[in-house]
Give the backbone structure.
Amino acid sequence: MADVILEHIDKVYPNGFKAVKDANIEIKDREFVVLLGPSGCGKTTTLRMIAGLEDISAGTIKIGDKVVNDIEPKDRDIAMVFQNYALYPHMSIYDNMAFGLKLRKMPKDEIEKRVKEAARILDIEHLLDRKPKQLSGGQRQRVAVGRAIVRNPKVFLFDEPLSNLDAKLRVQMRSELKKLHSRLNATIVYVTHDQVEAMTMADKIVIMKDGIIHQIGDPFEVYHKPSNMFVAGFIGTPAMNFLNAKLSSQNGSMWLTAENMNIKVPKKFEDILKPYIDKEVVFGIRPEDVYDKLYAVAATDNNTVTSTVDVVEPLGSETLLHLTIGKQVITAKVDPKSMAKSDQKLDIVFDMEKMHIFDKDSQQAIF
C-alpha cells in the first residue's frame, strides 16, 4: 500500500470551467478517505485525476514516493471500482475477475490463486461459473470489487460504487466494504454524495463544494466542529437548523435574540463571542439537540422557546417535528413519546452546550 498526496491540484477545462481549485489532500497509507459533496463539486474529477483518467492542470500527485503526473493509469498501480459494474456479459465471473491478470500475462496458477482468494474474501466462490446476468446487483458489485482486489494494487479507488443498489443492500455493502478495508489493510479513496456512507466508513472525510475543499477531518470532527455553514448543513440527517439572531449583552450575560426567541449563551462561549455583541449572527443547532420541553432534563426559562408545530413525522424510534419560531423554520428530533400535534403551540428546549455560531457574512464558524 502507499500514501497518496495531492498538492495544489487544479483542473481547468478548455472552456475555462475550473472543476477543482487548489486541492491539497494527504491520504495516509492504509487510510480510508472519502471525498464527499453534492453533484458537481469536483469529487469524481479529483478521483479521476488520481487514477490518471483526467489530466491535471496544475499541481502534483504522488502515489507512494513517486510523482505520477505523467504516468499512464495502467502504470500507477491503482485499481478502480466504478458506479456501473462494467462486467463483460459474455464472460464467466471467474474470467471477469481474471481478465486484467491475463492481459498482464501472469502465470495461470497465480491467477487462479488470486481469483479464488478474492472470491473467498467476498463470499462469491459459488458464483465463479455464472455469467453477470445471473447475478443480483449486490453480487455484481462484489465481482467488481473482486476484480480490483486480485490486482493487489497500492491504492483502491471507488467512484460511488453503491449508488445503484437499493437502500437495504447499500447498508449491507457499507459494512462489507469497511470489513474488507480492515482485512486488506488497503489505502482506499472513495467518492460519494451520501453523507451517511461517509460518516459510517471513513477514517477521514474531504468535504467539497464548487471544486473547493471546505473541510478535512474525521467523522466526529466534521460533525461536531464544522468549519462553516455549508459543512454544518451538509453533514447530519436532518440537516442542522440555522436561525438568524442578534447577539446582545443583558445583565452581565450574553443572549441570542430573534422574533419569539431569547436564549442565554453558556458562559464558556462568551469570551470568543465578545466581538459579535450587538451584531447579527447565525445560530446553529442540530435537530437532536432540540427537545420537547415535557421530555427535557435541563429545561429553564433561559433555553426554552415557544414554537408552532407545522408537521409531525413519527418514525418509531424518534419523531421529527417541523416547527416555526416567529418566521423561521426548524426541525427537532424528539422523544417518540412526544404528543405534539400539528398547529399547536409547543415549548421546546435547546441544548445550548451544543450550539454553533456562524458569521453571517462569511458563513464561517466562529468557534
